[in-house]
Design brief:
The chain is built from 5 helices and no strands. Helix 2 runs parallel beside helix 4. About 75% of the residues lie in helices and about 0% in strands.
Length: about 120
């Protein structure tokens, strides 16, 4: 029995002396605490890795959105001159799909109001 108990609680070698129940309970309690610490450490490491991956993905998405906005502002300004403050705010808060729509409109636009028809009136 001593050999089986020592193996169960992580002993390296078989015990050479008989163990009483309190000693076995103490060994098991220590082993359970060790397992708990190991499992918590694994869980923390996994959670941290997921958090880092999520943060990277969010950062990349934000960077892409900022790049799209900057390009749209640059192209609008090169084509039509001054970028109205309302248009700049609209671009800054637009989704990637909206940026695509604005860029597509800009390619064919004859006037700024063609790009942002609900925001600008013809001639602005």
């Amino acid at each position: 029995m001593a050999h089986a108990v020592a193996g169960l609680v992580g002993g390296r070698e078989a015990a050479t002396v008989p163990m009483d129940i309190e000693e076995v309970q103490g060994m098991l309690a220590e082993r359970i605490k060790k397992w708990e610490r190991e499992l918590l450490a694994k869980g923390e490491a996994r959670g941290e890795a997921k958090g880092i991956a999520k943060g990277i993905a969010q950062g990349e998405a934000k960077g892409v959105a900022l790049g799209r906005a900057a390009m749209l502002k640059r192209q609008f300004t090169r084509r039509f001159g001054v970028l109205p403050a309302d248009v700049e705010r609209l671009i800054d808060t637009a989704t990637p799909d909206q940026h695509d729509t604005y860029m597509d409109r800009l390619m064919d636009a004859q006037a700024p109001s063609d790009v942002f028809p609900g925001l600008l009136r013809p001639g602005e």
